[in-house]
Every structure is written in C-alpha cells, then in structure tokens.
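Here is one chain, start to finish.
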Amino acid sequence: VWWIKGPDMKPWKILSSRQTYKDKWLGVRTDTVELANGAVIPDFHIIEYKEWAAILAFTEDGELIVIREYRHGCQSITLGLPAGSAEEGETDFLSVAQRELLEETGYEAAEWVKTGQAYSNWATQNNQVHFFLAFGAKKVAEQNLDATEEIEVLTMKYEDYLNFEGITPNQCHHAAALHYAERYFAKHPEKRP
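Its structure:
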C-alpha cells in the first residue's frame, strides 16, 4: 500500500536513555537520539503513561452515559465519557473498561465491543487508548471514586452527544471514541441507539 510503504524512512537511533522523573501516575524518559540525517537531539522527552480505556456505554433504553466533572489540566467543568487507566502491568483492557465504568458511574453492561485503539499522542507519549462500546448498561452500585474525583453521572441521546457544541472543551480521546463508534455503527446499523 503506497501510503504505508513510501520512501525509505528509518527510525531514530537511541544513543542514550535515562529516566528523569517517575511517580505512580507517569514517568518522563529523556533520550538522546540521532536522526537519519545524522542530526543529534540531546534531550528528547517521552512521557510514559499507563494504557487507558474509554467507553461509550448505552443504557437498556439506548441513552448514552456521560460524566460531568472538573478537569484541572484544562481548568474546566467538562462533559465526557467514562475512562481510566490500567493498573501497572494490566493488559486486559476490557477488564479495565468494565472496572472504570463501574467505579465512575455505578453501571455494568451486558454486551461489550472493542472498537479500536490509538496512540494518545505518538509524538511524545508511549501509551495507547483502547475504545469500547457497551450496551445494555444498568445501574448496579454506587460510584467508587478516587479522592480526586467528583463525578456527576448523566444520560443523554447519542446524537446529542455526537453533535454536542456546549461550553465545555472537547477532549481528543472522546472524539476518537466517537470516530470508532461511528465506524462500528456504519457496519452494524442495527446497533445504533
């Protein structure tokens, strides 16, 4: 395929690598790299995150479950999707998605479909986001939130969220989740809420 093969490109050569920061949330790795043309970049920083899962979950009535919360990175009250990160070494991303939906919303879903995965920011981050659709969700528990979370659970029509132009900023992973959902619904129109 022409757009994948293209002219010969070579990955950057890592001349040295060191961990410059690490805590339970993220790490920063600083590489010295040599480009194919011989140029050397002495301090190329990679942010190391755990893998994430993002969920478009639909109730038994076909309503989309969304969450409203304050997000300090953008210093805004946001309307978005349930999502969260894997634990250290965890690779069963369906389980991550199921856990995060239950913890953040109190909902469990009867049917799950993985719709895709994508790098979060492939220029400077190493992690991917795994996207899921969940159908037939019903409330089975109270929320089990982290100390930093204050989440209001709402439901709305999928089309309203898809076309949402509210006062809150959009988040790229939630936009990607919609992209993967739309691809799925194009192949399975009977599943569209």
